[in-house]
Write a structure and sequence with these properties.
single chain, 535 residues, six-stranded antiparallel sheet, 42% strand
Amino acid sequence: MSSASSARGSSGRAEQASPSGASGSIRRELSRRDLLRRGGALGAAAVVVSGFGRAAPRASLARSTSLRPGQGAPPAHPVGRFVTEPGLVPPEIQATELSTPVQAGYVMLTPSLLPSGRMLTNAQSVAAGKGQMGTLITDLRGRPLWFKPSNQLTTNLQVQSYRGQPVLTYWEGKIVNGIGYGTGYLLDAHYQQVATVKAGNGLQTDLHELTLTPQNTALITAYRLVPTDTTALGGSKRGSVYEGVVQEIDIATGKLLFEWRSLDHVPVSESYVKAAKGAIDYFHINSIGIWDDRHLLVSARSTWTVYLIDRRTGAVVWRLNGKKSDFAMGPGSHFYWQHHVRRYGADAVTIFDDGATPAEEAESRGLVLRLDLAARRASVAQQFIHPTDLLTFYEGSMQMLAGGHAFVGWGTEPYASEFDAKGNLVLDLRLPTGDQSYRAFRYLWTGLPKTSPLVAVEPDGIGGYAVYVSWNGATEVASWQVLSGSTPAALAPLIKVARSGFETAITVHPKGHYLAVAGLDAQGRRLGVTRTVKL
């Protein structure tokens, strides 16, 4: 990377950091914010392309519909519910596409329902029209592809590699005061569980990180309550803190291979958190990234610092940002309350810079920092800011894609956004108000469920039948072929329609009293068939 990207467009923007110093209570340079405002809002190019089928009439919002000319519409069903999967009620996602995303693939979300910090049950949330919690894969139009509801909180759904095969990974459990108590899960391409990950040494697997390594191990975060002198933060000599812990777990055996504890290397005095009633979360570890075979990148929200850790000795090699930074921080490169730090190329890191809470900046941003490792200087290479100046209270993620594009999850703000290399917003997904996703990612994924597709059939009121078909998690279905006949053994093709969302509805006039639906791939090969229905 040669210099900080500078761009301004009608749909999004990135900009060079101002050479001026910070001033006032909002630390980021005002000239940058002013420049952003001149970039305009979403612009006339913005087009809402989908929710569950947002462009369709209200009666068909619950599904995407394929109808032949002259055929009647399927009967209306409650908004947000599927006829074939009435127990699945994922949140409705609005998608705004301003340009062409950089690649195909899907969006990975973990919708959770925490209005004002109070978790709603799935029943309460569905009643409020916000959908269930769980692990959710959508297409780029915001339509569900795979959904697994959960009565617990989930985080960190992503595609990783285990034993040379792609797997879905995520965390599930409960969260108390920002600390997770749960389990990490690995699912194969058939959505079958292949492994779980649990912390060692009597600790609980935390929500913040589940990173798989080429050695088939998992890097996870954990917390430990430790009696500590907290007078440096305005507390007591007999105070207590939550210590941040890194663990490396052998996935196959569950054996603890490596452990790093923050209090052994980072004093309480580095924290920006002030003492309050109870234990102090002085470090708040929230991400672990791989720098190379020997070193890890550890992000601590409460110290505003990224630490390079030696995996053999546990020593801190360098600190980036914070009270004891080993790097001179260039204009605009300071970050606050950050999340999700990863190495990018040979000499850069990506960071989601929350800027709050409390607010130290005017808006959150996805940030690429170039690191001059010899001179120990950090500078802004690129930054990605939402046109509405979103300020995330906590959570969030920053993922670099092909072609210099970036995908940003806004944590407590119900958005996930793709930007091009110049900082222009090209895709914007919005969850329901009050909903959030800890992180958000974009991946290629091939899902091949072991289950069969589901079908439901009912009279359409005008002499035909409405056929509803879905296959939760099946990525390769391009079209549905309705089969009918006089006996279950004599079913023949009746009509073929393109798949059009999680659940496709087709109105037909069968030739016989039996009906089934087959899922076909792009080459017309049969992938699976539903049960046979007697009409």
